[in-house]
Amino acid sequence: MKKNKMSKPILIGLVSIISVAVIQYLPALILKSPGMQEIAGQYVIVYYQKGDEKGAHEVFDLLESTAKEIRKKLNYTEAAKTKMYIYKKQSTFQMKKAGLVTLLFAPEWYVGDNKGDIALMVSPYAKVSGHNHDSILSAAPHEMTHTINYLINPELSYWIDNGVAGYLSDQKPQENFIEKNNVPSFEDICLENEIKFGKIGGYEYSYLYIEYLDKTYGWDKVASIVKGISYQEVFNKSEKEIYDEWVRSYWYLS
Question: Which fold has domain 32-152?
Fold first, then answer.
C-alpha cells in the first residue's frame, strides 16, 4: 500500500515535467508556421509567412545570387538546396530556434541562426532593436553559409564557422571596431556560447581572423580548416601559433 501511495505523486511529477518539456520545445520542433508559403530556386527554398512576400523575395534573390560563389569557395558540390525559414516577428524566430525559453535570454541583436542544415531568420521588415532592413538582410547569406559549413563538417568550431560565414557574406566590422574592443584571448575564441561570443566581439574578430588567413596563406588553407584538417597539417603550425601570429600581425598593421 505504501508503495502505491508513493508512486502516484511520482507519476504526477513525471507527467508535469514531460508536459513542461513538450510546451517548451514544441515550437522548436515545428519550423513551418501555419499558412507558410515557399519560393524554390536552383540553390535555396525559402519559406515565409503570409504578408511577408516582399521580404521573402529579397532574401530569396540575395541567396540565389550568392549561393553559387559561396558553395564554390567551400568546395561544396552537393545538389541539396538550402532551406531558409523567415519569420515576421523576432519572438517567433527565437522560439523556433530553441523553444519558449529562448525568449528569456536571447540578445536583442539575435536575428538569424541555423539548426544543422536548416537556416532561420527574421524578416528584413521586422522591427528589431539595433537593426535595420539592410543589416537583417545581410544575415541571410551568413546563415546559409552556416548550413553549408555544417554539411561539410558538423564539428567545426564556432570561431571558424562564424568567421567564414561573416567573411563570405562580406559582413565587415565597422572601421572603429578594433578601437573599442579588445582582441579576444585564445581561450575566448574557443567559446561555443553565442551570447558570450557576441560580448567579446567574436563575430567581428572571427571575420578579421579569416581575412588574415585568406590574405596570408590563401583561401585553400581556410577551406581545408573548414573540412576539419588539423592546423598542423594545413599550416605546419599549431592553432595557438597561428592565433599568436594573427594577433602580432594585425596589431602591427593597425
Answer: Zincin-like (3.30.2010)
